[in-house]
Design brief:
291 residues; mainly alpha
Length: 291
């Protein structure tokens, strides 16, 4: 059995320990993530981060520390304090969610440090930092993001309707078309798929590209893409309702079809990755040769 294989059971135990110790606030956070319409991705974040570390294991665990000092266990203390503090905070409150989430992040990062050493932590810094996505975004920030997406989507929908030459009259967030009147409501902002796409874009940028500027460009490209995706969804459903069947505005494609338009957004993103990789190829090859 290798050194890595010997340490994995200890790591798993240290990962489970704060969950068990903070089971009540942890279940409160999990319930919030499960029932919220905007931040349900929280439940997938730890598994995604673990999967990324596993996929990059040959790089991350290339130089495990030879010994494990007992003083490393002191790194568990900050996370433990926050998890215990969460028990004294109001159930369902923003502060309790934040205390629980940050406590878990610090505890899991400490567990990784204890078992695999500082070099492994450095080499998996991105994956560990991505755990910050389990911290719920405050409602005021969600409201601001939603309103911004709603306004941007409305402006794009206006342009797209003009391009289709469909007779349309606009009044704020409302559009009046032949036989149909629609509102670009907050629910049409696509904030859930927007946050999920941004999370995925960060991963794609890190895993597919070298160089900070290329990664920044890709992430910045994701922002207009989510608006374009929203515009395509609203306009296509409206046109289908006008020219095919009015039930398209109330049917499954409207209420459960978010994944379809999420994939459209991802499809727009992939060619951009390809373009950015063109100038990135020499770096990628050098990196591979060094590995």
């Amino acid at each position: 059995m290798t050194t890595l294989e010997k340490r994995i059971p200890i790591f798993i135990a240290l990962v489970i320990l704060p969950v068990v110790a903070g089971v009540v606030p942890f279940l409160d956070l999990a319930s919030f993530a499960w029932h919220t319409g905007e931040q349900s991705y929280i439940l997938l974040v730890p598994a995604v981060c673990a999967a990324l570390i596993y996929l990059n294991r040959d790089r991350v665990f290339v130089n495990l520390a030879a010994n494990q000092s007992g003083t490393r266990f002191l790194s568990l203390l900050p996370g433990a304090i926050l998890i215990m503090l969460a028990y004294f905070l109001e159930p369902g409150s923003e502060l309790r969610f934040a205390s629980t989430a940050v406590g878990l992040i610090l505890s899991w990062a400490a567990a990784f440090f204890i078992c695999f050493g500082p070099e492994a932590v450095r080499l998996s810094a991105f994956e560990l930092c991505m755990l910050v996505w389990i911290v719920p975004i405050p409602p005021d920030a969600i409201e601001w993001i939603t309103l911004t997406l709603q306004k941007a989507s409305t402006e794009l929908v206006d342009v797209m309707f003009q391009m289709t030459r469909v007779p349309v009259l606009r009044n704020g967030f409302f559009f009046y078309l032949p036989g149909q009147a629609i509102e670009v409501a907050k629910e049409c902002s696509g904030i859930r798929s927007t946050l999920s796409l941004l999370f995925l874009t960060l991963i794609l940028a890190h895993e597919s590209l070298n160089g900070t500027w290329r990664r920044i460009v890709l992430v910045l490209c994701a922002l207009p893409i989510v608006v374009i995706k929203n515009g395509i969804r609203i306009v296509s459903l409206t046109l289908l309702a006008i020219y095919v069947d009015p039930s398209f505005l109330t049917g499954p494609l409207h209420h459960q079809g978010g994944i379809v338009f999420f994939l459209i957004g991802l499809a727009i993103l992939i060619p951009i990755i390809g373009l950015l990789r063109r100038g990135d190829k020499p770096s990628v090859q050098t990196k591979a040769a060094g590995a």
